[in-house]
Design brief:
Strand order of the largest sheet: 2-1-3-4-5-11
Distance between the termini: 43 Å
Order of helices and strands: HHEHEHEHEEHEHEHEHEHEHEEH
Radius of gyration: 20 Å
Number of strands: 12
Number of helices: 12
């Protein structure tokens, strides 16, 4: 099914959100550009990558998806096009972003974030010969794959780490939006803390309880929440709030030794400033890059499957980071809990 007339009519709108990539701050102060998808000479998969709010340069979720595509460019002779999301955009713009990519011949098309689920399912039905994937998706269609993660397991492990390092016996959590995507981070973290010491208090702050996607691109809100948690006595704070987590790291960098922050999705120590690195204890890893690359490889091999493709701790799809050496004294203990999760002797809850 084609939508050329409709696309022409909306070209001015779509042009604002489909681009090589909006320029953003990268580690070391460099700006992101269209370099990722600049080379169009590859004969492999032609990937369309539609980012969530925050886009490439968020040092987390979106950057991991980009890293997976980069590996596909290097190893699978792929080419790509990036499409940026805009703040407060209507769902119709997401649909047209996906249609634009499909109309231009991109296949497969990957939506980064659960917010694309309904739009991907709708557009996938219009383009049955195009394969679609949604990171954290939950849609059903014959040509749609949902790349999902047992994030509660990685969060359980950083909860263990927080409990082992906390002197105050009080830790904190900052979540972007209450609901089925972020609640598992909070639940796993709380359970990991309790597994070590049930007497430790876990205080939680949410940047939104109304499904507001802007909560994931609100560093000022993250800073306010972090300040409140530290001021209330927490000495370790874990965030699952996308770009908003930068506010947590900024606050943690001003705190004394023994005060910690925990990152999410990517190893956020690697993209932090030197002052922030002194306070980043670990990160709960959600290996979106691995899932995206695996999906593109499956597409090239003709083996993609509709439904849910789960990345759990047994598959090394989630975990925790050790950059900076701040966990060197407790890594052995954390790995004991990890082994029990892998063996099924422990279960990390996904609901609060």
């Amino acid at each position: 099914m084609r939508h050329t007339t409709k696309l022409v009519a909306l070209a001015a709108t779509v042009a604002l959100v489909v681009a090589g990539c909006a320029k953003k701050e990268e580690p070391g102060g460099a700006a992101a550009s269209d370099e990722l998808c600049a080379d169009k000479s590859g004969a492999g998969p032609k990937i369309g990558l539609a980012y969530d709010i925050g886009g490439r340069g968020d040092k987390s979720f979106n950057d991991l998806a980009a890293a997976g595509v980069k590996k596909a460019l290097d190893e699978l002779d792929a080419t790509c096009e990036e499409a940026e999301a805009a703040q407060e955009e209507p769902d119709s713009v997401k649909e047209e972003r996906l249609r634009t990519l499909a109309e231009a011949g991109f296949n497969p098309i990957i939506g980064v974030g659960f917010v694309y689920t309904e739009e991907v399912v709708k557009v996938a039905k219009e383009y049955p010969d195009v394969k679609f994937a949604v990171v954290d998706g939950f849609g059903e269609a014959p040509n749609v794959t949902n790349l999902v993660f047992s994030v509660e397991q990685g969060s359980f492990l950083v909860g263990v780490a927080a409990a082992l390092k906390s002197k105050a016996k009080k830790v904190g959590f900052i979540g972007g939006v209450r609901g089925p995507i972020i609640d598992p981070f909070a639940a796993g973290y709380k359970a990991g803390v309790a597994a070590v010491d049930p007497a430790i208090t876990v205080d939680m702050k949410w940047l939104s309880d109304k499904g507001d996607a802007k909560a994931f691109a609100n560093p000022a809100g993250g800073k306010t929440a972090a300040t409140a948690l530290y001021d209330a006595g927490a000495d370790v704070v874990f965030h699952a709030s996308g770009l908003s987590g930068g506010g947590l790291f900024d606050v943690a960098a001003t705190k004394p030794d023994g005060t910690w922050a925990i990152g999410v999705d990517a190893d956020q120590y690697q993209t932090a400033t030197p002052e922030q690195q002194k306070r980043i204890l670990t990160s709960s890893l959600k290996k979106v890059d691995v899932a995206v690359f695996d999906y593109v490889k499956a597409f090239k091999d003709g083996s993609t499957k509709a439904g849910f493709d789960l990345y759990d701790i047994k598959r090394d799809g989630v975990g925790y980071s050790t950059s900076g050496g701040h966990l060197d004294d407790v890594t052995g203990k954390i790995d004991e809990y990890k082994a029990k999760l892998v063996a099924g002797e422990l279960t990390a809850p996904s609901k609060l």
